[in-house]
TrEMBL record:
GO biological-process terms attached to the record: DNA integration
Family annotation (Gene3D superfamilies): 1.10.150.130
Domain Core-binding (CB): 23-105
Cross-referenced Pfam families: Phage_int_SAM_1 (PF02899)
Keyword Flavoprotein attributed: no
Protein name: Core-binding (CB) domain-containing protein
Example GO molecular function: DNA binding
Top-level division of the source organism's lineage: Bacteria
Keywords: DNA-binding
């Protein structure tokens, strides 16, 4: 199966294409979403993965844990040197990253994701 025109994809900092990671964007759950949503998820996931690589000792997506998510939260929302984004922006970003990790867990690529689950 090739990459369909208009499907978002991510390239690693080493300019590598991760077939498993990019399988998320070709999954039925993603393909039925609006194009803008797909690209939003790609952008938000890329930002988190870039943070893992640049700020968490070149950590890959398979190795992310809750501590990484919390460090990302501090940097994105509270750190004076970070972007200090609004709560609504943070919630949207986390939703995209969490969707990826839920897919990765269901697909057997990771045992658990870095986003903590909160009982509602």
């Amino acid at each position: 199966m090739g990459l369909e025109v208009g499907t978002p994809f991510l390239i690693s900092p080493l300019f590598e294409y991760d077939v498993v990671l990019n399988g998320f964007f070709q999954s039925p759950g993603m393909r039925m979403r609006a194009v803008n949503t797909q690209f939003g998820y790609a952008r938000d996931l890329a930002a988190f993965l870039t943070f893992l690589w640049a700020s968490r000792r070149r950590k890959g997506w398979r190795d992310a844990v809750e501590e990484d998510h919390l460090a990302y939260l501090v940097w994105r929302r509270r750190d004076d040197d970070g972007p200090r984004i609004a709560g609504a922006t943070w919630n949207r970003e986390v939703a995209g990253v969490d969707a990826f990790y839920q897919w990765a867990v269901r697909s057997g690529h990771v045992p658990t994701g870095p986003i903590p689950k909160v009982a509602r």
